[in-house]
């Protein structure tokens, strides 16, 4: 079998799994939403200025008077047409609403992911190479400290630091008058606004990643084949980068997929704390306004991000680990 | 052996911390909802032994704060009147550990009120609010973990013991719960429950929501234990003697899951306390005037508070020693039982 075909097969398998997960999440959230006491129109019904007929007509328009399975199918149909349902509060389809916010959330999380791994990988390898010595001890203390500071505490602390020092802007994504700036100024403006939330996210994710990299590299460094390689006189630097890291890649790539979920959750919180116009503030408003389709859409979207990240991790894994390739072709 | 000692140390540390919060009525000088409209946003006060003349006083005292002249938000110590601190004094009534009515406080003063950690917008004592808020947050975490473990045990036992299609179905649903980012899941569950309710209902809602989020991981772990235990000889022997399923599950299989459950509890409790903080911080949890660590932090969402009153951030730091204690306890338990490695502790465990 060609390797390309094998990869496709493997990917197809993983994608089917992902689609199953998405389907399950949508069904689950829909079931929950059916159990909800009260919805957006209940508040309207209490308003004496709105006629009961109007509320009933609106309910009919949004098909809230239909039985649950019909509503679910209707919603699935809307999803298939890229609409994701309808927001009552914004009086517009959910998808475009979510998309603008999701772009901002992705901007944060992707940058934070890149930063975390760019820092965590070398730090972890460095720590493993000097296992038990001073640099490793210091780094371990730092990661242990960061580990006991929850993200909410960290984000608020950074915000207070920013306010008191004035080093960073303390909220929003762009300054007033952003449109008049030159492209370079626009970039700089965005970057300064991003710095604080990205640092908050990266600091929260960093200890886990450094510790895992350290643990898996240290384990590999102890393996027989690496001791053999060392005794053949291969320089330490090469041992670490091209032998140890490669062999330690498997659990780390799985961790990459795993850490996406934590990062998305963290981002939700950091966005609210630092008023970044991402999914976090939107979902919070939607919950407070009982705008259920926005909530369902947001949860589903987070799941799509997660599945996307995991698929990416799967491809990486396929590329990095020959055992997976063999297992995939044996099926 | 080193490990058992480590385990005991962490346990003692945690018991002391919880004792401090459980006995909030005694350790806090004031009632947490008692207001003083004359003194909003007072900064933390200092305790002195030496007065301005340089004389030593055996009884510690403090100087009440007054506005600096020509200023409307800068305070200075009013050194004319030293107010002595009294220990084991009579103060506002409370119920010790929620049961025994009492008036005894660790310290207090007559005349001026002392704000060791400052006061909030209504002149309420921040220290008292943090201590009492801890009761709400910790109880939510503990009860939430209880609900989660209970669900986890039920589902794990059923799936592992009976197998077949219920097992498949339950584990697929567990996969869904594990896959979703926890805060999104928390949001989704919270979104589908009523919003404006009283403090007690809100607290119970939070417990239910938090408890329903995390069952998947303990369920999977319990299932794993059950799968291996149910084929062991002593279980087979008991079954051979005609023991019923319920008896087998209760007497022989459930005790085997204890180590897994203990470790999970140590991991879950701090995360659930944090979950309560997050919900209340966002205004989806326990409402004012009841204090919780989360809604105490909610005032920081106002820019003016963020800029001027740094002591409103102090409730955030209260959770850090608890995190430290539980993390230490969890890793000591893991070392002791040796069931899993570091991975279970830190990676996807925020489910």
- Let me know the average pLDDT of chain B: 82
**Shape by Cα distribution of chain A:** globular
CA-CA gap between termini of chain A: 12 Å
Instruction: Name the helicity range of chain A.
Output: over 70%
Could you give the order of strands across the largest sheet of chain B? 1-2-5
Low-confidence stretches of chain B: 340-351
Distance between the termini of chain B: 33 Å
Strand content range of chain A: under 5%
- Overall radius of gyration of chain A: 24 Å
Number of strands of chain A: 2
Uncertain regions spanning at least 5 consecutive residues of chain A: none
DSSP helical segment count of chain B: 14
Q: Summarize the main sheet of chain B.
A: 3 strands, antiparallel
Order of helices and strands of chain A: HHHHEEHHHHHHHHHH
Helix content of chain B: 55-70%
Identify the strand order in the major beta sheet of chain A: 1-2
Shape annotation of chain B: elongated
Count of runs of 4 or more consecutive helical residues of chain A: 14
Question: Compute the gyration radius of chain B: what is it?
Answer: 25 Å
Notes on the protein architecture:
The complex is a heterodimer of chains A (331) and B (351). Chain A is an all-alpha fold and 331 residues long. Chain A has helices spanning 3-34, 40-46, 52-61, 68-80, 94-129, 134-147, 151-165, 183-221, 224-231, 236-247, 249-273, 279-289, 292-320, 322-330; strands spanning 86-87, 92-93. Chain A has a two-stranded antiparallel ribbon with strand order 1-2. Chain A starts with a helix and ends with a helix. In chain A, 36% of the residues are buried. The mean pLDDT of chain A is 80. Helices cover 56% and strands 11% of the residues of chain B. Chain B has helices spanning 3-22, 24-27, 126-162, 164-179, 182-191, 199-213, 216-229, 233-240, 245-253, 258-281, 293-297, 303-308, 314-337, 342-346, and strands at 48-50, 56-62, 65-67, 75-77, 83-84, 86-96, 100-108. In chain B, the strands form three sheets. Chain B has a three-stranded antiparallel β-sheet with strand order 1-2-5, with no helix packed on it. Chain B has a two-stranded antiparallel ribbon with strand order 3-4. The model of chain B is unreliable at 340-351 (pLDDT under 50). Chains A and B meet through helix 1, helix 7, helix 8, helix 11 and helix 12 of A and helix 4, helix 5, helix 10, helix 12 and helix 13 of B.
């Amino acid at each position: 079998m060609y390797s390309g075909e094998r990869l496709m097969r493997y990917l197809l398998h993983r994608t089917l799994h992902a689609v199953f997960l998405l389907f399950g999440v949508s069904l689950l959230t829909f079931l929950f939403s059916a159990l909800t006491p009260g919805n957006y129109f209940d508040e309207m019904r209490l308003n004496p200025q709105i006629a009961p007929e109007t509320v009933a007509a609106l309910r009919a328009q949004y098909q809230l008077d239909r039985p649950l399975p019909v509503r679910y199918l209707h919603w699935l149909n809307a999803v298939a047409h890229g609409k994701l349902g309808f927001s009552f509060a914004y009086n517009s389809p959910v998808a475009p609403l979510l998309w603008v916010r999701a772009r901002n959330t992705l901007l944060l999380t992707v940058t934070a992911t890149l930063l975390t791994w760019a820092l965590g990988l070398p730090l972890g390898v460095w720590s493993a190479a000097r296992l038990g010595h001073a640099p490793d001890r210091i780094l371990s203390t730092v990661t242990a400290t960061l580990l006991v500071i929850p993200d909410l505490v960290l984000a608020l602390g950074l915000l207070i630091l920013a306010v008191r020092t004035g080093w960073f802007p303390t909220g929003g994504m762009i300054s007033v008058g952003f449109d008049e700036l030159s492209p370079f100024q626009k970039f700089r403006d965005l970057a300064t606004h991003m710095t604080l939330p990205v640092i908050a996210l990266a600091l929260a994710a960093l200890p886990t990643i450094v510790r895992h990299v350290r643990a898996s590299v240290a384990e590999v460094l102890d393996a027989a084949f690496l001791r053999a390689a060392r005794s053949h006189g291969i320089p330490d630097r090469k041992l670490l980068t091209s032998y140890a890291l490669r062999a330690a890649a498997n659990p780390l790539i799985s961790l990459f997929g795993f850490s996406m979920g934590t990062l998305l959750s963290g981002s939700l919180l950091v966005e609210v704390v630092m008023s970044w116009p991402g999914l976090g503030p939107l979902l919070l408003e939607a919950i407070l306004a009982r705008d259920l389709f926005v909530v369902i859409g947001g949860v589903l979207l987070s799941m799509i991000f997660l599945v996307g990240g995991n698929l990416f991790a799967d491809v990486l894994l396929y590329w990095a680990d020959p055992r997976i390739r063999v297992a995939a072709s044996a099926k | 052996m080193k490990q058992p000692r480590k385990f005991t140390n962490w346990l003692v540390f945690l018991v002391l911390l919880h004792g401090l919060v459980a006995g909030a009525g005694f350790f806090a000088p004031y009632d947490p909802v008692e207001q003083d409209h004359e003194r909003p946003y007072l900064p933390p006060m200092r305790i002195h032994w030496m007065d301005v003349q340089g004389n030593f006083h055996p009884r510690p005292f403090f100087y009440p704060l007054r506005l600096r002249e020509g200023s409307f938000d800068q305070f200075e110590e009013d050194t004319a009147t030293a107010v002595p601190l009294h220990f084991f004094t009579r103060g506002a009534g409370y119920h010790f550990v929620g049961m025994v009515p009492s008036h005894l406080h660790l310290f207090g003063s007559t005349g001026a009120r002392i704000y060791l950690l400052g006061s909030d917008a209504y002149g309420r004592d921040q220290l008292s609010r943090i201590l009492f808020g801890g009761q709400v947050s910790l109880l939510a975490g503990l009860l939430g973990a209880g609900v989660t473990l209970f669900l986890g045990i039920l589902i794990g036992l059923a799936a592992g013991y009976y197998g077949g299609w219920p097992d498949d179905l339950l584990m697929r649903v567990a996969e869904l719960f594990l896959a979703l980012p926890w805060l999104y899941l928390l949001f989704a569950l919270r979104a589908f429950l009523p919003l404006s309710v009283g403090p007690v209902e809100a607290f119970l809602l939070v417990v239910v929501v938090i408890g329903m989020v995390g069952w998947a991981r303990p369920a999977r772990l319990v299932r794993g234990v059950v799968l291996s235990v149910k084929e062991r000889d002593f279980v087979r022997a008991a079954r051979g003697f005609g023991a019923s399923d319920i008896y087998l599950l209760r007497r022989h299989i459930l005790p085997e899951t204890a180590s897994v459950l203990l470790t999970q509890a140590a991991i879950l409790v701090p995360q659930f306390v944090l979950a309560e903080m997050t919900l209340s911080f966002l205004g989806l949890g326990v409402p004012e005037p009841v204090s919780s660590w989360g809604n105490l932090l909610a005032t920081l969402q106002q820019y003016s508070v963020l800029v001027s009153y740094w002591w409103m951030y102090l409730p955030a730091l209260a959770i850090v020693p608890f995190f430290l204690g539980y993390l230490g306890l969890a890793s000591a338990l893991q070392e002791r039982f040796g069931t899993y490695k570091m991975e279970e502790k830190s990676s996807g465990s925020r489910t």
